[in-house]
Amino acid sequence: MNRYFCFISIFTVMISLLSTTISNAQFNEDDLVTRSGINFQYNKQGSPYSLPENMSDELTSFSYYFTPGIGKFFGNGFYAGIEGRIGARSQKYTSLPDGNTTNANSTIYGGGILLRKYFKVAERFTPFVGLSNTFYKEKGDEKLPGQPYSYNQNNFTADLQLGAQYRLSPRFGIEAYYTPGGLLVSKDMNSNQKTDNTSNFGGNGQHFSLGINYFLGKK
């Protein structure tokens, strides 16, 4: 499944990069832009472990985080900027049929860089492909039955973005994008386990985002 999502994502990015011939209009935006977005991620899946036929597990995860940032266009649709990541995650792991549950709640904070390529297909409508590289910390507690556990996790992600922006006015634009996944490197600082490197496509690697852009250079 991960290979399938990886192939689809790479194929989509390649098609997008080749689609610059869709419009003869040159994209020469050069504004400084402030951004404010919110990302959502929801995932519900069965146990990652092999269990007897009369047993099953279920993991439900929901997270959100805000991504304030600022960046600049450099002509021909290229954009580079920095952004923050501030939010929270909640997880619930249920073991059936005994019904034992494990709850985990954490806070997320960090930041990184954002690179994008926009394609002008209409006067107001500009699809884009992007790559965000973010370092963030995740701190929280797992409430195991009779065995609480605190974790302090360092994470690095390199995520793909496939989305579009619509200009409401010379100064304001709205955007939405889908992240099919990317690379996740994580290390629990309270554990002796080694750093975990995961190519994370589909499942808990995908999320959605909505945002507002404000163009500082427009009159």
TrEMBL record:
InterPro entries: OMP/PagP_B-barrel. Gene3D superfamilies: 2.40.160.20. Keywords: Signal. Residues 1-25 form the signal peptide. This is Outer membrane protein beta-barrel domain-containing protein. The lineage of its organism: Bacteria, Pseudomonadati, Bacteroidota, Cytophagia, Cytophagales.
